[in-house]
Write a structure and sequence with these properties.
The protein contains 9 helices and 13 strands. The chain is α/β, with parallel strands linked by helices. It is globular and about 65 Å long. The strands form 2 sheets. Strands 1, 2, 3, 4, 5, 6 and 7 form a 7-stranded mixed beta sheet that branches. The protein has a 6-stranded mixed beta sheet with strand order 10-9-11-8-12-13, sandwiched between helices.
């Protein structure tokens, strides 16, 4: 059986003079036009690789949006044997960077959809372009991310005699917190809210520190605060929906199902994408998110009009 080589990339997009444009890259080694992409590093999640490879090839910092269709095609592995390259793609918006070309690319071209369709050298790359256009027409392209995070692995309750709210992460949890930071970075999170319990704050603090953000610790998101009243946790979620900023909320296993169930009520009407999003939310609510797991909701609108168009689950 041929080995699978995992890779990831993005379709950076923008609107210029009322027209949708996407960024293509030219590789002089192959003299072809395609999307910015590259192979995953060992242990790297595809979403992290997608943002990293885009920066390395284009010099542009991007915030991932909705997932797009993946691509599979035959290649040769490092030994010259047959392999399959599997590339995961996301729509992406540019949030920074100089645009200075960094890696194996000699030109980045922003072009309209028709030009992109004609210039792409591989038919398989047109599938992502078509999906991006469909998302734009459905009003599901200009999204913002809301990431729900279950705290990373902590020291066992039975081996901790002090206040449970002070229980710290263990070595595995500390490693998970770094993976959480990488994932939140790929989605460009700018607001971080957490249970005031140490294990939750420590899960998202590495990301906040790396971006110069403040972790907004809330007792209402702790197990103890939620047991006293679930209303406070719901209020914290609603505040994030009202703001509509790229955000992360970190809490506990007993708290998150209530929030996930409320979010499931906000899934948009698109049949295929909406049904899959609802299924992922319901599964996460019923079977519990894993420790250190990140669930990313892609939303359009804010406040009462906020609607979820897609959901991703990221294990750390």
């Amino acid at each position: 059986m041929a080995s699978v080589i995992p890779a990831a990339g993005t379709l950076p997009w923008r609107r210029r003079d009322g027209r949708l444009e996407v960024a293509l890259v030219h590789r002089p080694k192959y003299d072809d036009w395609s999307w910015a992409k590259g192979k995953l590093d060992r242990g790297e999640h595809p979403c992290v690789a997608a943002a990293r490879e885009t920066f390395e090839e284009t010099g542009l910092v991007v915030r991932l949006g909705v997932p797009l269709p993946s691509a599979e095609y035959p290649v040769l592995d490092s030994t010259g044997g047959p392999a399959t390259k599997r590339v995961h793609y996301w729509a992406a918006r540019v949030t920074g960077g100089t645009g200075e070309l960094e890696h194996e690319i000699d030109e980045v071209a922003w072009v309209d959809v028709r030009t992109a369709h004609d210039r792409l050298d591989y038919a398989r790359d047109r599938e992502q372009l078509l999906a991006l256009v469909r998302a734009e027409r459905a009003g599901e392209l200009r999204t913002w991310p809301l990431a729900l995070v279950r705290h990373a692995k902590a020291r066992p309750r039975g081996k901790w005699a002090a206040d449970d709210r002070l229980r710290p992460l263990d070595a595995v949890g500390l490693a998970q917190s770094r993976t959480v930071a990488a994932a939140l970075g790929a989605y460009g999170v700018t607001r971080v809210v957490s249970s005031s319990s140490v294990r939750c704050v420590a899960t998202v603090e590495p990301y906040a520190v790396s971006r110069g953000l403040r972790v907004r610790a809330r007792d209402a998101l702790s197990e103890e605060g939620f047991a006293a009243s679930s209303a406070g946790a719901v209020t914290q979620l609603e505040r994030l929906l009202d703001k509509g900023d790229p955000a992360a909320l970190c809490s506990h296993g007993p708290v998150l199902p209530t929030l996930l169930t409320l979010l499931a009520e906000r899934v948009g009407p698109t049949p295929e994408r909406g049904r899959a999003a609802a299924d992922r939310l319901e599964a996460a609510a019923s079977s519990a998110m894993g420790k250190g797991e990140v669930l990313v909701c892609h939303l359009v609108g804010r406040g009462a009009d906020a609607r979820i168009v897609d959901v991703e689950r990221i294990d750390t």
